[in-house]
Design brief:
Shape: globular
Strand order of the largest sheet: 1-2
Number of domains: 2
Structural class: mainly alpha
Order of helices and strands: EEHHHEHHEH
Radius of gyration: 21 Å
Strand content: 5-15%
CATH topology of the largest domain: Aspartate Aminotransferase, domain 1
Largest sheet: 2 strands, antiparallel
Number of helices: 6
CATH class of the largest domain: Alpha Beta
Length: 197
């Protein structure tokens, strides 16, 4: 699909390490060599000759050890995440706009993000769940085009109203492969209760 793809191993991700980490994938040998150089201070063939600007971007041994062990159970964890997502969708599908995955696609469910119904107060909703010990998160409070880094990029004259609305309406519920059914039912009940107040 692309010359380069990336993934994050941030602890909250489905394949997360203990701290920060990530990977870059490419089948271009020259590009891979350049990326390796950048990863280690811009190092050339001599380890003390930096031939380009670089950074310290190496994955440390502890993070690698965690990932190696997690890879052994990754398929099982993805299956468990899908079961959690299915329970959420069955339990909340009539109350919120639940995420959908196209039939030809799959998801690893890094988050389970719902869209609250029109008129719902997201802050009050989050506070109601927090009062019951249920964490929520708004991962993307601003659409990409509203981020400072994109301020000089063109956008449609009327803005991007759908993206902007979604940024105001979405909130993520607890999601991990070990979310047992009883705990999840408590979360679903709390979501319904928070929406009815």
């Amino acid at each position: 699909m692309a010359d380069v793809t990336t993934t994050s191993f941030f602890p909250a991700k489905p394949l997360g390490c203990y701290g920060d980490g990530g990977a870059i994938f490419t089948d271009d040998d020259d590009l891979a060599n350049t990326l390796r150089s950048i990863r280690v201070h811009g190092q050339g063939s001599d380890k003390y000759d930096n031939i380009r600007l670089g950074m310290t971007g190496r994955l440390d041994t502890i993070q690698a050890a965690v990932l190696i062990e997690k890879l052994k159970i990754f398929d099982d964890e993805i299956e468990a995440r899908n079961q959690v997502a299915d329970r959420y969708t069955r339990g909340l599908g009539n109350d919120v706009i639940a995420p959908r995955v196209a039939s030809e696609n799959t998801s690893v469910w890094a988050q389970y993000t719902i869209r609250l119904p029109a008129g719902a107060d997201r802050d009050a909703f989050a506070a109601a769940l927090k009062a019951q010990g249920i964490p929520t998160n708004v991962y993307y409070a601003k659409s990409l085009h509203q981020q400072t880094a994109f301020r000089d990029f063109p956008i449609a004259e009327a803005g991007l109203p759908v993206s902007e609305q979604l940024s105001r309406d979405v909130i993520s519920l607890p999601m991990h492969p070990y979310l047992d059914e009883a705990t999840q039912q408590r979360i679903i009940k709390a979501v319904r209760g928070a929406l009815s107040t």
